[in-house]
Amino acid sequence: MLIRSNASARKGLGLLLLCVLATVAKAGAITAVPLCCLPAVHAADASQWEVFETSYESAKAYSNAFTEVEVDVVFQQGDKQWKVPAFWAGEKKWTVRFAPPVQGEYTYHVECTDKANTGLNGKEQTLSVAAYKGDNLLLRHGFLRVSADRRHFEHADGTPFFWLGDTWWKNLCKRMTWEGFQELTADRKAKGFSVVQIVCGPYPDENFFAPSLKNEGGQPYLAEDMSVVNPKYFDYADRRLKHLADSGIVPAIVGAWGRGDCNSMDKFGAEKIKRHWRYLIARYGAYPVIWILAGEIPEEAKAGKGPWAEVATYLRSIDPYHHPLTCHTGGYPRKLAKDDIPVIDFDMVGGSHDEHTAVAPQTVAIVSSAYSTKPPMPVLVGETCYEGHMQQGFGDVQRRIFWQSILSGAAGHTYGAAGIWHAGVEGDHGNWGMWGRQPYDYTTWKEGMNYPGAAQLGIGKKLLEQYPWQKFEPHPEWAPGCYAAGIPDGMRIIYRPRKAIYDWSGFTVNNLIAGLPYATFFFDPATGRRFAKGIVTPTSTSWKIPNVPSPQDWVLVMEPPDLGAPVTLSAAKAGQAYAGRLAPEGVTFTNQTGPGWLTIEPDGRVSGTPGEDDAGANVWLVSVTKAGGQPALMQLQIAVTGLPGVSFSEKFNRYSGDQNTAQVQSGLKVAHSGSVASWTHAGQGAMHAVDRANQAGQANPSDWSIMIFDDNVIISKAFAGNVAGQSYRVNFDASAAVYNGSPQATQAGDALLIEMLRADNSVLASTTHAPGAWNGKMTFTTASLDYKGDGSGDLRLRIGPAGGGKSGRFHGAIDTIIVK
After folding, report:
1. For the chain, what percent of residues have pLDDT higher than 70?
2. Residue numbers of the chain with a pLDDT score lower than 50
């Protein structure tokens, strides 16, 4: 974050002004008028949202400038005005920092409560503000605010902001070196953190102004009653907080602490804490920040009651940017009486530092309760079980806390790690507990930096940011025993916590839209791996998932593809090379599902040679990604005309079903409850399929074959293949089959029944085919049915189990049907 000063503007104009003397005729003498008394005409340039900094010199010295006077600089553009507190920078110097919220021309002047101080009153100047041209998203999109629906955070331009915070309570002290601070910042930026909660004032768990509070500039105050500020301390704090902002991380600045053993209100009183906050606003209000009034203060503050609420009201009155404000309390959501007026913009709640309690239903209910409290405001967990704190609460616990909070309505989440929150180093742990002031942890910040939970939460944030997460609503009824959120008529994300050891059991998703296709995959919250389940089209409002990929916690993502109108390319001919191109240029195309004969290049070129069995409508789902954007799905259609004499062909590659597991022994993807365009189906679990091309968890395109289980029956659309007296042959491939359990495997003697049906459902011709017993893999052989047309009209194919009944087994699989 660049800090612009008006020094460069003064350099040129100042040289000119130094050569101009205001003259007064006094007894023939020429008298020089001091430069500070001339009308100020300086001009300066700045960029929107960047820090513009300028300083003034007091015309008089004060014994304690910090307490004796207040200085503000008023910036004005038309009828808009920003009154910005200035801070005492030492000796006679007062500095103001201003981040212009809008572009254009400003005037500004300084005001002091001591009206006789000529150095700190008047001096009107101009400021020209242009658009920000850098790449810091905090400045490109503007400062943070609460959204209009009061459910999440967003930038000034409306861009949603996902809060993933880290806890650095004590990281302004010198235990954390400047080099270490930069290293930790780079690590957190790389892992996706967007906020750092950090104390700039009295620390938790420490005596007021203990030596451990010092940074390179000393203590923040030189008197233990907070009456004498130490600008050098804040000069060094500036460097760190600015570095966070420059790195795209929002400093969430905590002004003090309020718990019983470190109660700043009892120690200093409201007036001194107000003055402290005025200094913080003057120093850091021009940065993209969040204000946290204090840590662990009474719950009444949230309802606008008590001395802390008095401080909050004062803070809001002098912050020209209205940065979001909250307070860190004991953990409970706000409880408002009828006439209570909240002084906070968002509700920061807490959990528990015990790993078991932190994930318990009553703890999750704190988020749910805060979410449902009126008036609405964003809610998030600001402190809960730190990773590695007292050697517990590691990655699996952190994942569950994160997902259960986010899917219960939280607008973000704050993580913490042992070693980091207290800036622990070897030989100086930096934390003192309640049991005889013994430390909680000897963990160092470098050890805590590498705990796995931080990266795993970053993975979760990255996933959520691919979707309109800011529109999500919590819906626990969607998946009992899980945590679910999403958009009622659209996508949903479901977190299934780890159950018992060796427990693969699945769950039921409710309140789906029957017949609506969902692009579905399991997401591993520990690694980011995705396990595709393809396009799932539920036939009812509920979908039973028999099992999860492995006995751990999982995230299920279901998104209705926004396919729009299908994109149709020119027709292809079986047996002939085909080439075409998708539009537009400048995007990346990736084949997701569809017949394997077509190759789709990233630049949109398509090519391939369809076979005889590809005749008919061929459909692909293609991912389309713009540079820097999120992928969207497109439906591609190419009609393939068959070879002369082919009446009907089907390869089942348009199958769409519930890809929930892998075939036993072979490891191929299998699916159930699916459908194929132009076919009807009936029977238990209709229709099952196996992907001959892919192992479970691999990417598409697929090569599906239909498996006939128990009373499954599939019937094709009608086709012309019944000229009287003409001979026809139905060729098909068949194999033994199984799903994910060996008892269901095809046995010797099990057979498929293939029938040619007239319009009245009478049978023109039929055959049975026994594919043989299951041998551990899909082994297809070609079989056929010969028939002679009788001229009675179009025919349909019906395929089912020979003998009917329910054996509890698969009778076989069928693929690549050609009638000619």
Report:
1. 91
2. 7-41, 696-701
Q: Are residues 446 and 483 in the same domain?
A: no
Residues 526 and 612 in one domain: no
Cα–chain-centroid distance for residue 138?
Answer: 16
Eight-state DSSP code of residue 608: E
What count of other Cβ atoms lies within 10 Å of the Cβ of residue 788?
Answer: 13
pTM listed for this prediction: 0.71
Sequence-ordered strand ranges (E) for 696-762? 704-709, 713-716, 727-735, 752-757
* Claim to verify: residue 323 and residue 372 sit in the same structural domain: yes
Question: Bridge partners of 494?
Answer: 484, 556
Same domain, 428 and 355: yes
Parent domain of 526:
475-553
Contacts of 654 (CB under 8 A, 6+ apart): 617, 618, 619, 676, 677
What digits encode the pLDDT tens for the residues 386-441?
999 999 999 999 999 999 999 999 999 999 999 999 999 999 999 987 666 789 89
CATH number of the structural domain spanning residue 689? 2.60.120.260
- pLDDT per position as a tens digit, 226-268: 999 999 999 999 999 999 999 999 999 999 999 877 899 999 9
> What is the distance between the alpha carbons of residues 642 and 176, in angstroms, rounded to a whole number?
73
Residues 426 and 493 in one domain: no
Strand residue runs (E) in 401-472: 412-414
Is 558 part of any domain? no
Answer yes or no: do 410 and 482 share one domain: no
Residues 756 and 799: beta-carbon distance below 8 Å: no
Alpha carbon 21 to its chain centroid, in Å, reads 62
Answer whether residue 433 is part of any domain: yes
Give 336-403 as a DSSP string.
--TT-----SSEEEE--SSHHHHTSHHHHHHHHHHHHSSSP--EEEEE---BTTTS---HHHHHHHHH
Domain endpoint, select from 524, 553, 582: 553
- Say how far apart CA 461 and CA 678 lie, in whole Å: 41
- Say if 21 falls within a structural domain: yes
Same domain for 329 and 231?
yes
Q: How far is the C-alpha of 65 from the C-alpha of 69, rounded, in Å? A: 6
Cα torsion at 569, 571, 574, 578 (round to 10°)?
-50
CA distances to 87, 218, 232, 773 from 229, rounded to whole Å, are 10, 11, 9, 86
* Domain final residue, candidates 624, 644, 664: 644
